[in-house]
Each structure stands twice: as C-alpha cells, then as structure tokens.
Structure to design on (449 residues):
C-alpha cells in the first residue's frame, strides 16, 4: 500500500526516512504561517501551495490530516503599519488575514486548516515563558526575557551548527543584555503605542519564536508528525522552537521537519525589505491562479526556483492546455450521457509513487503530462470506448485533485446540450449551413467544447 511506503526527507536528520505516524492513519501537521502586516509575495506562497499538496496526497492515500498554520498578528511591523495608516493593529492584521485567506482560496488550497492567532494565545505563551524562567532555561535581563541556549545540551541540532560557530555568526542579534549572543528574546518589555500584556516579567509582548511551540502543544497536546515551513525560517526560528521544546518537553516538536526551498528573482533572494518582490496578488491577475500553483509544483520542493515572466508564461500556456483537455473530455462524456464512473488507470500508481517518494510533485506533474497526451489521443480516436474515456477522466480528475489544480468547468443545461447535439447531427449529415448557424449559437452561449 502506498500509504505505508511513503518516504520523507527529514531536515532534522538530513536523510530520507520512512514515514511513520504517531497515531495510525492520522497525520498531525503544523506549518508556520504569515506575519500579517502585508500581502504575501510569490515566495511566501510556495510553502502554502506545497504543504496543501502534501495534505491532499496524504488524504488521498488514506490518512486523516489535521493541519494547523498560525497567524502572527503581533509584531513590530504590524505596529509600524498601524501607525503609518493611522489605524489599529487589529485592523491591519484582519485586513491581511482576509487577503491571505482569499489568496489561498484562489490558488486552490483546502479550507480545512486551523489558523490560531498569537493574540488569542497570550496566556499560554506567558505561562510557557514563566515555566522556562522557573526551570532556569530563561532569564530576565534589564527589561527583557531571554532563552539561555547553554541551558540545553543540543542547541543547533536542526541547522547543524555548533554554538561556538554560531557565536561568531552573522545572523545573530548582538545585545549586551544577553549572556550569549545566540540567546533569543522570549518577552520584550514595551512602552510604545503597540498592544501589550501584563506578565510576571512586566508589560510587554512575546518574541516570535515561542508562539508555535505553545500553539502546537495546545492544539495537538504533544509531539506531532510534520512541522513545515520555508528554508529561510529553519534558522533561527525553527532551531529556537526546538530549543524551547527540548527545555520543557524534552522532544523536538515533530518527527519530520520539512523545509521548502526559496523562489528567487534574477538569481537573488526576494525580500520585502529590499523591495525586489513579486506579489502573489499581481501574479494572480496576470495569469490564472492555477498556473502559479502549477509553476510551484512543477519543481521539486527542495530546489530553488528562479522566477521569470518567461517561465511563468510558459507554465500558464501549459495550464491552459491541461484545462482544455479536461473540458474536452468532460464535454465528450457529458454529451454521451456517460453515467458510469471509470476506474483509475495503472498510470495513477506511477503518480502516487512519485508523490510517495518525498513528495516529488515535479515528477508527478510529468505523469500528468503523460496522461494528458493519452487523453488527447483517445479523444481523437473514434474507436475509443466511453468506458476508457471515463477511466481517463477519473484518473485525470484524481491527479488534478491531489495537485489542487481545479479546472473551471460548467456542465451544460439540457437546452445547451440539445443545441450541441443538434450541431453534431448537422455536421454528420453534412448540412454545413445549419451546422454553421448552430455553431454560432454555441459560441454566443459561451459554451466551450
Ligand atoms: Zn513557527
């Protein structure tokens, strides 16, 4: 069974491993979500699309998947935006949460995801930090609370770094209040305009790295199967999540850590602060949203993608062909009043095997191309049985469903169906004048054949 033969590249071990879930037939999955102070760019959308596809695949092969992705709705950037726009942090975060969910919907992501917010979990976060302080894993220095990275044995296990090397590293914020430069902020005492909460450490706000650990424990009640996110948050965010969990729970949060690679622009890292970003919302205006999803899935998730308009246009053309094949096949079956649902073709096994080996969507998309070619051949072959076409359709539908690529297809009304059938008869009878008239009516009605 495919379900029992799944292999996953685990970022924690840097190895391909057999996928074994904690509970039989169930998968618990957490993906770090956005800080909601702006729209998302195409790079931010990559984990959203990829992990949604992982979820769809796992469900197809028989797992029940519980997926959680948080909203960071407390952050300096949100406060800054609220000040700039003369509004509240809540309005800023609500606006971008709505924009995010709309975008997810357009790119075909499942709505069956739990989205906890930081502001709704403050009490749990404060209690968690308090427990770290009480167990000497965290300390208060001046106004802030820091995690003491030397208080655990294996800080650096995820990013494969030794503390000695980290201390001279570049990505660590140096601050004289810290005992070690690698120590990270758990609580910031604040006096600014931003939202703040009372805590045993004074009025303030939590740092970024605690929320996911707390929410995972709150929602799943312990260790989970998959923790995912983009490679850019592997260090320090995920490293710091693991450190806190090791300190209090003595486990690494998840059995499988999965990180997707970046999407670059002209070979450079996209960054909102550098201003070289392409917004997902703009891409979804210029191209069908599904084309962007296909663009992401046409690459292996651990491979960096270099985005260009040329490549995107090419993928959009491919998507149009996929959609055309779908509509042509669906119409053929519809006009033949095919009732029977076909059985899945053996090609589906190839597709599932590609997905089962570390979610290789790139190879799965190649199998989809193979099927598309077969369907186009079958459609041209007047001897191809309706049963075979139904099987083509069922298989095509299933593959597209797993990839989350939905084709916009409108079934014909009975009048429309009668019109199309009359046109087909006129053509068969070689009554070209009538056929042309009917064809015009079909076009006027906006029916795609
Ligand atoms: Zn996180």
């Amino acid at each position: 069974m495919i379900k029992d033969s799944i292999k996953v590249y685990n970022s924690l071990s840097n190895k391909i491993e057999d996928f074994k879930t904690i509970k039989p037939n169930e998968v618990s999955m957490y993906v770090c979500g956005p800080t909601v102070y702006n729209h998302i760019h195409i790079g931010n959308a990559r984990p959203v699309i990829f992990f949604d596809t992982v979820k769809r695949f796992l469900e197809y092969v028989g797992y029940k998947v519980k997926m959680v992705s948080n909203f960071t709705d407390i952050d300096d950037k949100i406060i800054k935006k609220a000040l700039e726009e003369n509004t509240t942090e809540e309005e800023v975060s609500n606006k971008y949460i709505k924009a995010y969910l709309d975008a997810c919907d357009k790119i075909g992501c499942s709505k069956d995801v739990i989205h906890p917010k930081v502001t709704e979990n403050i009490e749990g976060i404060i209690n968690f930090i308090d427990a770290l302080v009480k167990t000497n894993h965290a300390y208060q220095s001046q106004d802030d609370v820091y995690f003491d990275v030397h208080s655990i044995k294996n800080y650096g296990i995820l990013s494969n770094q030794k503390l000695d090397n980290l201390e001279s590293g570049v990505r660590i914020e140096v601050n004289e209040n810290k005992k070690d430069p690698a120590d990270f902020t758990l609580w910031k005492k604040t006096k600014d305009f931003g939202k703040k909460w009372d805590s045993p450490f004074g009025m303030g706000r939590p740092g970024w790295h605690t929320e996911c650990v707390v929410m995972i424990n709150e929602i799943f009640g312990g260790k989970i199967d998959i923790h995912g996110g983009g490679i850019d948050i592997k260090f320090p965010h995920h490293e710091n999540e693991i450190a806190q969990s090791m300190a209090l729970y003595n486990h690494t949060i998840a059995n499988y850590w999965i990180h997707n690679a970046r999407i670059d622009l002209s070979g450079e890292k996209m960054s909102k602060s550098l201003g070289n970003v392409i917004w997902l919302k703009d891409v979804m205006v210029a191209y069908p949203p599904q084309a962007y999803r296909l663009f992401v899935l046409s690459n292996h998730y651990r491979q960096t993608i270099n985005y260009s308009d040329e490549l995107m246009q090419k993928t959009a053309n491919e998507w149009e062909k996929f959609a055309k094949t779908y509509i042509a096949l669906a119409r053929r079956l519809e006009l033949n009043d095919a009732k029977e649902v076909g059985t899945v073709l053996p090609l589906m096994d190839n597709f599932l095997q590609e997905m089962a080996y570390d979610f290789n969507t790139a190879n799965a998309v190649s199998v989809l191309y193979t099927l598309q070619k077969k369907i186009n051949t079958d459609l041209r072959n007047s001897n191809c049985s309706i049963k075979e076409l139904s099987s083509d359709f069922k298989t095509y539908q299933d593959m597209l469903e797993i990839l989350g690529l939905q084709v916009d297809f409108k079934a014909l009304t009975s009048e429309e169906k009668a019109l199309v059938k009359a046109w087909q008869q006129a053509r068969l009878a070689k009554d070209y004048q009538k056929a042309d008239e009917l064809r015009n009516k079909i076009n006027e009605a906006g029916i795609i054949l």
Summary: The mean pLDDT is 94.
